[in-house]
Amino acid sequence: MFRSYVLVCGGTGCTSSNSPKVIEALENEIKAVGLQDEVKVVKTGCFGLCALGPIMIVYPEGVFYSRVKPEWIKEIVDEHLLKGRIVKKYLYQETIDGDNIKNLMHTRFYEKQTRIALHNCGVIAAEDIDEYIARGGYTALEKVLFHMQPQEVIEVVKASGLRGRGGAGFSTGMKWQFTASAEGDVKYVCCNADEGDPGAFMDRSVLEGDPHCVIEAMTIAAYAIGGSQGYVYVRAEYPIAVQRLRIALAQAREYGLLGDNIMGTGFKFDIEIRLGAGAFVCGEETALMTSIEGNRGEPRPRPPFPANKGLFAKPTLLNNVETYANITQIINNGAEWFASMGTEKSKGTKVFALGGKVVNTGLVEIPMGTPLRTVIEEIGGGCPNGKKFKAAQTGGPSGGCIPASLIDTPLDYESMAAIGSIVGSGGLIVMDEDNCMVDIAKFFLDFTVDESCGKCAPCRIGTKRIYEMLEKITSGNGTLEDIDKLEELCYQVKSASLCALGQTAPNPVLSTLNYFRDEYIAHVVDKKCPAGVCKSLLQYVIDPEKCKGCTACARQCPVGAISGTVKQPHVIDSSKCIKCGACMATCKFGAISKK
Amino acid sequence: MKTPADLAAIRVAKKHLVASRHDNMNAVRVTVGMGTCGIAAGARAVSNAFVEEIFKAGLDEKAIVVLSGCMGDCSLEPMVTVEVPGAEKVTYVKMDAAKAARVVAEHIVNNKVVTDYTK
Ligand SMILES: Cc1cc2nc3c(=O)[nH]c(=O)nc-3n(C[C@H](O)[C@H](O)[C@H](O)COP(=O)(O)O)c2cc1C
């Protein structure tokens, strides 16, 4: 029996900020003071607030220590765990409210969130099936196996209104229905954990923090559609997720929750892991299945759809990790409960990976239809350093941007589509006045050029040509005509590509053209980058009024482009300048600016 | 292989592990003084007794045990306060494990202050 639990995040984010050392120090220190029978250290998955990691929460008080250093542990154990004196100086400052210390759930970051898919993440020990069971784990599977017919399960999922969280937003219940109705001696249940959208990490966090919820949901799906074998396709770049999933699969087998006779009902299902090499296209469903089959991961035309002819040409159900993460709770709490959250057509919650120019970066789960403003300003805490919010990019390389003027748009499938963006898999990158929108479009095209599998010409060649046109524009060699050509090519690539990689790759360009065309025009007509990002269009100049002739900049300049005599204004030779910005960073008098 | 009954048994046996991992603002709060004086007078045993009795009473989601520094009256240690939301804080003095069991049974379960142990 423990009086207190110390939860430390063992997810990828906090692990890279040294949480394993914190855990080790805690365990040693707790033993040293003889508290090992009173206080238990729990290694959890992601809490969401990755920027503040390593994160440590002490229950029952629920106090929140942030950016914990191993050197602090002795003091925290001696003071807090042994004598009950919370070490305020190490707490997340927002939780201190005079003498009162707020629970982490009452911070701005968490208060507006509703955690369904992430409900166990950062709460349970990810490697202990008993903690999952103690939190109600495997009750949904039991309910389904003992009290529901397969078709009833499908009806519940349909009625919940759940839609695929992997990007396309297709009705999950309908997909289950199609797969259940398809003819086939063998059927497969697959989980897409490829998560190729740069910046998104909700699927990784679910697997790291709550692997059993995916296993349980896949087993429920198998029962509903008549599947006997499952596969989780996860990228090898997620070693912690893979490891936790392996442990969880072994525990589930040991408990007979996977295998030949699940819970003694005679129902048979098991799951294998397939590691992907981290190609974006392998997240596309047909390419994913081709890759599981052992072939090169390339998409193929649809139809036939996987529901009829998927993996090994058998009927196959494929859902995303986050989609599965909602299933057990829909079964436990009912379709109506789930459908009561969100908007008319977008039900439930969605996890977003909030990143870029925002104070609180991390994972946030909010009811569908929450305005973008709430996420950026309240949960995210706005742009750092008082900068002005310019736009948000949603849906990663397949998505588009939302300009500041549309910050009140609700985050749901319909509203996003109406303004030319997508919910996608939930990447949400915040940009401020210092971001150049042409450069952002170029960034994503650089990614798709790399990730295009090359099977079809429109995507292979088209994305490359789009990239080159953006390169021309950002280097100051573009013309107005190029902008029109660029736009036309975008539409051609969209309509002619084989799979959604190519069909959506031009979106970042089209949406920035739509909302920030003036920035493109500034690049080609005025030969200026208004945000001051595109190097070829920049000039660093020294204001002779402000320059004191201290020579600091001249000494910093790596290419000797700055000249002048001591105590006299200096000048930059723009033919030598490589625009690294070192001079501007060094100048104490604010005399150097970029134009 | 685990049957539903086995799983239910795990749920009961392991519930205490996860019971406190939420916002405990509205929980009954038992605070045990852990100053040097308290520890010397046996406060550790008292806090452990509270944890155990609360679990036995099936209240581990509704009541929590926390520690504090010296409560200011070293001759009366181990001292314990019990705060039931909406009620006055009650201070118990010269506590031990047996007294803890009675406070849980009478004060926390039945909401009747054990006046025998108050100051
Ligand atoms: C280029 C490309 C990459 C994709 N990457 C992923 C991915 O990483 N994870 C994912 O779940 N879906 C991804 N998808 C979507 C899948 O094709 C598919 O729609 C999804 O996995 C279905 O699951 P859902 O209905 O639960 O969303 C990708 C699609 C495309 C075209």
Write structural notes for this entry:
The complex is a heterodimer of chains A (595) and B (119). Chain A is an alpha/beta fold and 595 residues long. Chain A folds into five domains: 4-106, Glutaredoxin (3-Layer(aba) Sandwich); 129-160 and 170-338, Rossmann fold; 349-426, Roll (Ubiquitin-like (UB roll)); 437-526, NADH-ubiquinone oxidoreductase 51kDa subunit, iron-sulphur binding domain (de novo design (two linked rop proteins)); 539-594, Alpha-Beta Plaits. In chain A, 39% of the residues lie in helices and 16% in strands. Chain A is built from 23 helices and 20 strands. A five-stranded mixed β-sheet of chain A has the order 9-10-8-7-11, with helices on both faces. Chain A has a five-stranded mixed β-sheet with strand order 13-12-16-14-15, with helices on both faces. In chain A, strands 2-1-3-4 form a four-stranded mixed β-sheet, covered by helices on one side. In chain A, helix 2 (19-32) packs across helix 3 (73-83). Chain A is globular. Chain A starts with a strand and ends with a strand. In chain A, 55% of the residues are buried. The model of chain A has no long low-confidence stretch (mean pLDDT 95). With 119 residues, chain B is of the alpha+beta class. Chain B has a single domain (4-117), classed as Glutaredoxin, CATH 3.40.30.10. Chain B is built from four helices and four strands, in the order αβααβββα. In chain B, a hairpin with a 6-residue loop joins strand 3 and strand 4. Chain B starts with a helix and ends in a 10-residue tail after the last helix. The model of chain B has no long low-confidence stretch (mean pLDDT 92). At the A-B interface, strand 1, helix 5 and helix 6 of A face helix 1, helix 3 and strand 2 of B. Flavin mononucleotide (FMN) binds next to strand 11 and helix 20 of chain A.
